[in-house]
Amino acid sequence: MAEHEHVRVAVIGSGFGGLGAAVRLRREGITDFVVLERAGSVGGTWRDNSYPGCACDIPSHLYSFSFAPNPDWPRTFSGQRWIRAYLEHVADVFGLRPHIRFDAEVRRMTWDGENLRWTIETARGSLTADVVVSATGPLSDPKIPEIPGLDSFPGAVFHSARWDHDYDLRGKRVAMVGTGASAIQIVPAIQREVGRLTLFQRTPPWVMPRVDRAISGAERRLHRALPFTTQVRRGVLWGLRELQVQAFTKHPDELGLVERLAKRNMARAVKDPALRAKLTPDYRIGCKRILLSSEYYPALARPNVDVVASGLTEIRGSTVVAADGSEAEVDAIIFGTGFHVTDMPIAERVVGAEGITLAESWKGGMRALRGASAAGFPNWMTIIGPNTGLGNSSMILMIESQLNYMADYLRQLDVLGVPPGPQGTGGGRTALDARPEAVDNWNHQVQERMKRTVWNTGGCTSWYLDASGRNTTIWPGTTTEFRRATRRVDLAEYEVIRKAGERTKTSVAEADEIDEIDEIDGKKSEAAA
């Protein structure tokens, strides 16, 4: 970092959210920004998760930016290396690399109320920024449970998101802990080469077939020659998932048919009644994320695989012990136990206007206005924030909606900082801070809608829920609804902070006037893009 470097916007992270934010900033005509990345390359979770079998469970043409379509996806559900290559391509095509600071892990972000800016301490030095856009993502910091004896285990231990590619699994006795989205991809990928595989399952997932196939050369040539065909394909994939939302959010009982299909899928691959009993969930399908795999059940039925329908509770030397008392001797332990989603570590590093961290502010549960702004943290926004997750569709759709909100947020700051008029210049620095009552009102609406959803009523305990049982991760509606809710910033939901430090609430008349100016600026920006 250059000494005393100051930028208008600092983006944290270079996954889909961070790169998307960077592209949107350039399209808005903003070039005074940096992307702070803790690793040595872009990609976020698609860089970190390189385990065998890693792939996306959302179709490729929907799991990509609308402004950067890829006509050359090789499969309908592409693997990790193709998605990571796509993100590298986005960084190159949109000229983002000059803005990216690699190996610059953020250690602390502190709001400077006197100068209305953020002071950011990184592994490569310090800088300041008018606005921070945090795009670290909820699937960035692995969670490994505290298990007695783990520290003294003599073999290899690693998490799915920190795969040890130097460790040779061939012929080894391996314990796989967890049965989430990563585990159902890892198990069939390693089952054929390990000597014995013991799967520790606390809760069985619902698994549907993954209808994956290679995308033909003719299809790809068509998409290259006629780009609108890619848009049509994406639109169909999106529309089908929008139609599914009501079953998850309003009518969970309608999911019974899907359960019967899932059980039939299991019965085709698993002939042993005892094993089928272990693998059959006792909660409504959709309560946890529905997983897609056509290889998971066949792998579990192989003679070198043991399914322990109980969690791992203790380790004695090289012996792993389950809650039901069963034991197994293993050479390696692989954890597929998820991430710090409802207790994101980045929140401990953000210090707001009142001198408290975001983690302290969120002690009773994560909450942010429209999934973006937290009260007491001016000019700080998050991408994939509280209650923006999806259970059945592409998170890229939600990210792009939040980028719309970010763009309008910056336009509002421009209008507030520079007096309107042909000669208006130098209006001074300003900041926007979400009003606590606006955050509470938004959060109340979301939680009320959440009460009838399958995620709250389906009878399971999932990573969607925080320690107090509140669902602080999932959006209880369609992606269309969320896009409408984040199309524009409502200034009435914010306090305006001036350079002198005074806080004012924007009146309805002022908000209308600013909206009118903002609409003109927005049209100019869209035309330029």
TrEMBL record:
It comes from the Bacteria. Its cofactor is FAD. SUPFAM superfamilies: FAD/NAD(P)-binding domain (SSF51905). Keywords: FAD, Flavoprotein, Monooxygenase, NADP, Oxidoreductase. GO terms for molecular function: flavin adenine dinucleotide binding; N,N-dimethylaniline monooxygenase activity; NADP binding. The keyword Flavoprotein applies. Pfam families: FMO-like. Belongs to the FAD-binding monooxygenase family. Catalyzes a Baeyer-Villiger oxidation reaction, i.e. the insertion of an oxygen atom into a carbon-carbon bond adjacent to a carbonyl, which converts ketones to esters or lactones using NADPH and/or NADH as an electron donor. Thus, can convert bicyclo[3.2.0]hept-2-en-6-one into the oxidative lactone products 2-oxabicyclo[3.3.0]oct-6-en-3-one and 3-oxabicyclo[3.3.0]oct-6-en-2-one. Is also able to catalyze the sulfoxidation of methyl phenyl sulfide (thioanisole). This is Baeyer-Villiger monooxygenase. The lineage of its organism: Bacteria, Bacillati, Actinomycetota, Actinomycetes, Kitasatosporales.
